[in-house]
Amino acid sequence: MGTDTEMGENEQPISRRRTFAIISHPDAGKTTLTEKLLLYGGAIQTAGSVKGKASDRHAVSDWMEMEKKRGISITSSVMQFEYEGYCVNILDTPGHQDFSEDTYRTLMAADSAVMVIDAAKGIEPQTRKLFRVCAMRHIPIFTFINKLDHDARDPFDLVDELEREFGIGTYCMNWPIGSGVSFKGVYDRDRRRILTYADAHRGRDRLAATECELTDTGTLDRLIGPEERETLTAQIELLDGASFDFDEKKVAEGKLSPVFFGSALNNFGVETFLESFLRLSSPPRGRKTKDGGEVSPDDPGFSAFVFKIQANMNKAHRDRIAFMRIVSGRFERGRDYYHVQGGREVKLSRPQQMMAQERSIVDVAYAGDIIGVFDPGIYGIGDTVCEAGMSAEFEDIPTFSPECFALVEQIDSMKRKQFAKGITQISQEGAIRIFFEPESGMEKVYVGVVGQLQFDVLESRMKSEYGVEYLMRPLDFTLIKKVPQEIDPSKLYLYEVKWVQDVKKDNYLLFSSEWSLRYTIEHNEGLELLPYGNGGNM
Ligand SMILES: Nc1nc2c(ncn2[C@@H]2O[C@H](COP(=O)(O)OP(=O)(O)OP(=O)(O)O)[C@@H](O)[C@H]2O)c(=O)[nH]1
Ligand SMILES: [Mg+2]
Asked: Is the pLDDT of residue 329 over 60?
């Protein structure tokens, strides 16, 4: 396999592609792992220490001002690199639940998932939720148990927890030898070799593993010491006897998760992980359409769907990018395509591939790839773009219903335009939802978010990206419902309920509690309210 340009048309550009998302509870090490993978791919030269205060280097995938300051990921990033003939698209996602809508959308663009587990903590709440989304889509799930350089829980315990809680099988590709200060390395079960931790380093050179049968006590004693050797041989014996057989089909169906132990920060076990992952994970999959059909990656016509919109990724450009996952065919720069929701032909201008906020223009791209295109404000999340005449319309991406609300008022009338632009753009990204007093302007905006932290992000982005400050008053509403079109809300009996409209002038009601919702329904005979968004809330 080689790069697309080296390859003839009849070689397989699609089957060599791997598109996956890295998911987990906050802080398990997703961004750190992403960076080490990029190092191996040669896509970056040095990894920024994610939370290193001493240096001002930051992880390439955490580019937003607030991400750098707080050392957390707020928005997902997409990066592409070549590795041993594979073309790899990585999606690093935020772990914090307040940003989970972004993570869910990004998962829709991935064909497999890498679940990172902190070895001291095991499965955490957010990992649990994200696992469910993967399980629903039946995508392969690979597990990277991270931070073995710190004291870890018993590996049997960790694996048992995965099987019990997630109802899947696991297959340990390697096995840790100790943890924390006594971490000696890992034993590679398939290739029967030992990778010693003492040789770990932070560069991108390869670690040399030592081929070693478990019966070779001399070599083992030299590598890890007699005590560890005894533990390891006993544990591997137990593992061989008790664990599932390796079965590629089950991996592809998401029923068996290959498990790897390592330390992303110390670049330990990352390379072997990458190699096995690329070999075992699936090439691009098809995607279901609204009419119940499915577009396959091998369909010759180009089709893609928008899963993310992001403004101001690069201060030098100050523009908005719509990220598309290509589902089928081949994208060619300069050709006209059809935007289904907009109902017209579009030029996908300045198509680019991303390296966090670094961009390079792409001339061709294939199913599995993610491209960013300049968005003049026409795309929505979930939209389909395809070859004219193909008439595919992909399934919606689920929207979340906002649960926290605040009233935001501009304070500087000189900056009215920037305020409106900022609030509108950020809402078009789907990071916030905006509503207004019925039949009024943009001076007062009701902002709804899924989690409180999104208010902080809004404030920080409005300031750094649009130069605007505002007054914000939290409101104690927690529920939103849509009013059916045929009902005039001014005729309803509303007690401590707020009536607002969105940009399309659709009517919504905000409630402080389930009780208030029930009260309203009881006091307005025959009133049936609709769920927020496309009802795909999870
Ligand atoms: N000791 C140790 N620390 C690690 C390891 N991997 C990551 N870390 C640290 O764990 C912290 C969190 O790492 P991140 O990579 O930002 O975690 P994340 O999963 O991307 O977090 P969110 O994006 O905020 O959900 C950082 O301080 C890392 O340096 C590891 O293998 N060992
Ligand atoms: Mg992160």
From this structure: yes
